[in-house]
Design a protein that fits this description.
The chain is mainly β. It has one helix and eight strands; from the N terminus they run αββββββββ.
Length: about 120
């Protein structure tokens, strides 16, 4: 009975892991482009690594394919202006060496808040 229970648990665990969508990697010059996926195969996040650190532009999407975040990393730290689209608002977050310096929030009816 214990062997059967162990088999069922191991089989269930392997089936759960088999359903995970693994990220894809591709070389892009001196960087590695990585794409993470939702379980349904839609793109969740996409960006770059350089020397095993987050680097360059990163994008995040919802399951419908709408962009929900955009920003830049340098040596694994957030830098520059990041944008987050949530609940009909656009947040503009300015980073310096991974530290938030300022945040601006734009309403849906302003031109800057449109996600295009």
């Amino acid at each position: 009975m214990k062997v059967l229970l162990l088999f069922v648990l191991l089989f269930s665990f392997s089936m759960i892991n088999a359903q995970e969508v693994k990220p894809s990697y591709e070389l892009a010059g001196d960087q590695v482009k990585v794409t993470y996926y939702f379980e349904d195969g839609a793109i969740y996040k996409q960006g770059f690594f350089k020397d095993k650190k987050l680097s360059g532009k990163w994008l995040q999407f919802d399951q419908k394919g709408n962009k929900v975040a955009s920003g830049f990393y340098k040596d694994g730290k957030k830098v520059g202006t990041w944008f987050q689209w949530t609940n009909n608002k656009l947040r503009e977050i300015n980073y310096d060496n991974n530290i938030i310096k300022s945040v601006s929030i734009w309403r849906e009816d302003t031109k800057l808040a449109l996600n295009r």
